[in-house]
Write a structure and sequence with these properties.
Blueprint: H1 2-10, H2 12-33, H3 39-61
Helix pairs in contact: 2-3
Length: 78
């Protein structure tokens, strides 16, 4: 959980996208509670939240690979 919190705080765009998705979803529920059709807003809000969570999960599961730089080039046949 601590690693997830650090990742989200480091990625300002992820945090912004998560907040926007939650706000759109809350707006959709408020709209439907008033008797209007808010399914489009609900789909957009849940889509934003789910895509953001998938992106965060992918970043957490990916392992950083370190590429060692070559000390010098090896030329064959020279």
């Amino acid at each position: 959980m601590k690693q997830l919190t650090q990742l989200v705080l480091a990625e300002k765009q992820s945090l912004f996208s998560l907040v926007v998705g939650l706000m759109v979803t809350a707006l959709a529920f408020a709209t439907m509670r008033e008797g209007h059709n808010g399914m489009g807003l609900l789909v957009v809000g849940l889509g934003l939240v789910s895509l953001n969570l998938v992106s965060i999960a992918a970043k957490l599961s990916s392992k950083r690979r370190v590429v060692k730089p070559a000390t010098r080039l090896q030329v064959k046949g020279a």
